[in-house]
Write a structure and sequence with these properties.
This protein has 98 residues and is α+β, with helices and mostly antiparallel strands. The chain has two helices and four strands. It has a single domain, classed as Alpha-Beta Plaits (2-Layer Sandwich). The two termini are 16 Å apart. The relative contact order is 0.32.
């Protein structure tokens, strides 16, 4: 069953200039990871330091494999250099029949 992962990011104000390039590089790898069905980056229209990444994964197992890969030296990115606070990750399933 497909799942939706919402990654809520609070960026440092001083990182706004470098953020697009780092996010692009990081999310290019995310999109290429097995099981990633797609992702969308949402910018808060009232707060340029607030970004949400909306990811669709083939299964919770694919998402777990991706998160585990990101925790390795091979999967590490520069995303952490942009953040003012720890990212918040929430996983959702689609409510069928509602």
């Amino acid at each position: 069953m497909a799942i939706i992962a919402i990654l809520d990011l609070q960026l440092k104000p001083e990182s706004l200039e470098s953020a697009p390039g780092i996010l692009r590089a990081t999310l290019t790898d995310t999109r290429a990871f097995p099981g990633c069905l797609g992702l969308t980056v949402l910018n808060d229209s009232a707060d340029p330091t607030h970004v949400v990444v909306y990811e669709t994964w083939e299964s919770v197992e694919h998402d777990r494999a991706y998160r585990a890969w990101r925790a390795t030296a091979e999967g590490a990115s520069e995303l952490g250099t942009l953040l003012a606070a720890a990212p918040k990750l929430t996983l959702f399933t689609v409510a069928e029949g509602i």
